[in-house]
User: What shape does this take?
Amino acid sequence: MSDTTFTAAEQESSRSTDIPRNPPQRALRLHRELSRVWANDKGIWGQITAVSHSTLGLRFMATAFVFFAIGGILSMLIRAQLATHNGAFLDTEIYNQIFTMHGSIMMFLFAIPMLEGLAIWLLPKLLGTRDMAFPRLTALGYWCYLFGGLIMLTALLFGVAPRDGWFMYTPLSSAAHSPGINADVWLLGVTFVEISAIAAAVEITVTILRQRAPGMKLTEMPLFAWYMLGTSAMMLVGFPPLIAGSILLELERAFDWPFFDVARGGDPLLWQHLFWLFGHPEVYIIFLPAAGAMSMIIPVMCRTKILGYGAIVAAVLGLVFLSFGLWVHHMFTVGIPHMALAFFSAASVLVAVPTAVQVFAWIGTMWKGQPQLHLPMYHILGFFLTFVMGGLTGVMLAIVPFNWQAHDTAFVTAHLHYVLIGGFVFPMMAAVTYWMPLITGKSRIKGLGETAFWVILIGFHGTFFIMHLTGLLGMPRRVDVYPDNPEWVWLNLTSSVFGFVLTIGFAMFALDLLLHITLGKREKRDPWEAPTLEWAMPIPSPNYNYASLPTLQHLDRPARDVIMPLARGEGTLPGAPRNRRELLVTRAIGAAPDHVAILPGNTALPLVLSASICAFVLLMLASLYLVAAFALIPVAAFIWLWARGMAPEGDLAPVEVAPGTTLPIHHRARQSLAQSGLNALLVADGTLFASLIFGLAFLSVVTQGPAPGIAGAENLATLIGMGIMAVALISAAWASTGATRGAAMLGVALNGVALIVLVWLTLTQMDDPTLHTRDALRAVVAGYVALHMIVATGMAAFVANQHARGEIDGLTRGAHPGWRAWQGFTAATAVLAMIILTAQVLA
Amino acid sequence: MKRAVFLAPTLLVAGCDTPLSALAPAGPVATDIAWLWWVMLVGAGLITAMVVVLIALGFRRPSETRPRVWTHGMGLWFSMVVLTLLLGAGLWVGERIQPRNDDAVTVRAHAFQWGWAFAYETPDGSVVETTDLLHIPAGRPVDVLITSQDVIHSFWVPRLAGKMDAIPGRTNRTRLQADMPGTYEGLCAEFCGLDHAGMRFSVQAHADWPPDPSETEQ
Amino acid sequence: MRWLALTLAGPMIWAATFTLVYGLHGVVCASVPGPEGLGQGARLLLIVAWGLGLAAFVPLFRALPEGPALSQRWPYYGAWIGLVATAFTLFPVAISTSC
Assistant: This one.
């Protein structure tokens, strides 16, 4: 029964995506028209106001490359210090800052932004659209990344950089053992940077689900899109635990709220759980985009199609889920019962299976086709050798008894560099060399790239292969001297020498890119003769990507056959006749055309907003907490302006995207991109809430004995207060379903009542949060709920304002659907929080 | 060929006979783990070689293979079989070396920034405390109760057993055993601040237990 | 839409079972510190939780579509991923002796 409905649904979706062609026009005229509308402004101002995914994607990658170089220089300092056993090159304090910053930069300021940049630059081209779903958000993410990174770098220059290791274990990173602002730089800086990760995850999800060319079904989309969908889902669920942990630790450092302090009911292991709940998925967040790039490049290099498409997607699915079940393998030595270790050991071993499926599918693709040794293929071979070895040592580390020996030794340092350089840097070098012609429109200078590859490969294995042995001979991580262990000297000296070889290799790679950009000759279109859409455009890629958007008939054909029809405007939405940035939005599953989205143009608002957030972060760093609270006012004001920027204006008439196919514009669409984006954000927000509840549950189990204090949810007054709040919030959620001005005003009032009650409860009925973990956690949950009520109030007021301006009517929906979703989420989490807190008291 | 396979580890072991080497085990716990390592090393070497050969063969003329041979045959079945065997071995060793309620001697290790306070109890009930030198009996299982004064440290004597963290608010238990009397080196393996590198200690295994007080005076 | 939900169902069941068993184990083991073995009642509780997760795959496998299209094969892959993961990662509840 069920299979017939499937086929029926699939047939229907393919019928509805047969879109007739537009009549051909002069390609040059279309190009001029589109360039005028989509181009960045001129000069420096143009860089400040740019929101284009091509500009920002490249800028993300270029900035990440600069941070990679800085992180690399730090690693050379580490290797110089360790080259001899009494290295007097750096003092311990500086050395600790350097290795902490090396790890933090490589993870948060290189790897994550690099993959975000690649996805932002590539995805719209690959899916057949003109930009990411939320161009201003792309820009906001970039500025947050840049400012956060600069804060951390500045701290390093002034000698106050984080120094507690990149995973910041408490209590070493707590106020008692790490006074000064070093740890705050990490907590605030990294959280600031993570705004860009969440922003990227939201828009990558929405772009892949809603902006595929009509007829590009999920079951047929390019593998890179599947990998990125998996990655962005993992980012939405993986980053919130880190953000939650960072907020808790910063609250403990700034306001003495004890979450990790044993004397007051806390537990340092809570930090480790939250950190690795993020930290292990993080490894796969880094690996998946790289694997996605490989799945695109290998078939082209082998002149064939990928082997086992369905199995690869299934493997991605398995990785996405399993990677959330193995975080404890970073904690095998903390004294967790052997049974729990066995769960996580089994999950860690099992996660190798989907990885193996992919590796063998790639090798099978090489068998099926005829590999050609172009430069990207060199890096792919480097990947295979390095990553397979790193994967195997990873399986070894998943075995509990062996982990007890190898944990926190140079063996792990070796393993993680095999995995990260093998599984991310080599594929990224393959990706850059593969897509470079599309970026520059030029061909590279032959020879240097190959030499760079060999120097990198030799330098890498020379540095890290023997480091396995160094670890097994007992050398722990993060030591600056080893005066009593002459047996480690030759090992470390070898690693140091080859480390410099490795650096020279990367420098040669960078030089090759520079020469390519400056001296490269003009390259022909579609140089690799690839079958994917991103090559079906002129090179270098124009800022609007496609003069007309591809449809089903342009998919899965050699790019060279598709370039001209698209450039002549035979696809959908040719040119920019209405002088605004338009693209086609499709439905998530079958990719049937749904509506036309009008994107915002160039604006400095992202820079201004992120600068105001930066001011808040700096004030927090300076411990000026009261002033910092006031600094949130401009942040809120700019967010209001941001939302005003998307208010409906001008021509709201439906658009004929192709002969006979007329679609509404997004203000009048049933499910707009913004709504999809909010849903994705709420997934992340819900995970943040779940992380706090996890903390609550974890500490309830761990904490022995009752908490001190008198007040609590058992008081009648508290129960009544919570009852009023619940009623007010549920009524507000009900009010948010009504699309009238009165409903919106009611929403403002109800949220206000709930907020006042919450403030009253906090002031009169709660113990001082510094007394005990229980009180601190209650205060945090109350803060979470309060923040959501404030935002809900703001959204209701915004909607009321839109009603007053006449921007919402029977057809045009304004911000109303967004408020409704947020209000529902707020009511649900608040009621859930009240039930949990009450249950905790009763239990 | 067969001889070489057996000879190679022996030669390697000789080169690994250093004071902090996990590959020079001096007790049953560390020996079990070292065996696990050598087996995994050989397996990993063979698998790496296999993958390299498969990739090299990929450069021949195109050949039609069934996709399922790669994705299901190699990807699923081959890896599942290898990994299941390995996991089984790991859990079996893990269970073997767990602390249990038997006649093991119990000693205490209390970590602080930056050093170790050790203690053991004599049969007459008096407690002997030492700093940076742990006394244990040789030839008997010893359970170490590990605690911390301030931040997280990690107790590690590579030749006797794996490591176990010292975490504020918790008492962790690990088991180790030295087969022969002698001195074994240990260190703090978890980064713990400025003098992390210097947080070393020694373990002295005694043939007689409790040891003669003259031997344990510091 | 239905095929996507069915594909995700298997891994979701694993995630739910894993969370349930790991959480229960945390509560149980917090009450018996030290190297004592797990009590019979506690072990039974964990095994029952694990069994419930495994049992949830019976209706899932019955609901799977059949056919060669990817949207028919992925639900099948998803269900197997979930089942193998549930069986493989949680079997220690039956064999591990210590808490």
